[in-house]
Please model this.
Amino acid sequence: LGPKSGEELAGCYAGADCFVFPSRTDTFGLVMIEALACGTPVAAYPVPGPQDVLEPHVGAMAQRLEDAVASALLLDRDACAAYGSRFTWEASAREFLAALEPAAEAPAPERAA
Model:
């Protein structure tokens, strides 16, 4: 299909029966959230990235992608869209701020005698 963006990309996601995320090494996989926001369930390996994003009611994970796909096809698309809509910039900023910890006080500079 070549590069897609905007409404054309959303249409591709929404038209799919499920979105297969075949990576074992991507660190996050924003495309999974994009697919979910379009109501498309996700099939992936059970590795970091998908494990950080997916919940059982919107994504299926298995060592064999074929098994994950078979399970993902049974998931509710409305639940996927509702879950995907939770990943907003505001929610991301709140999560980031909640993870911050105060910096340690820097020691006072020594004065010359």
About this structure: Residues 72 and 92 are 26 Å apart (CA to CA). The chain is about 45% helix and 10% strand. The beta strands are 19-21, 42-44, 59-61.
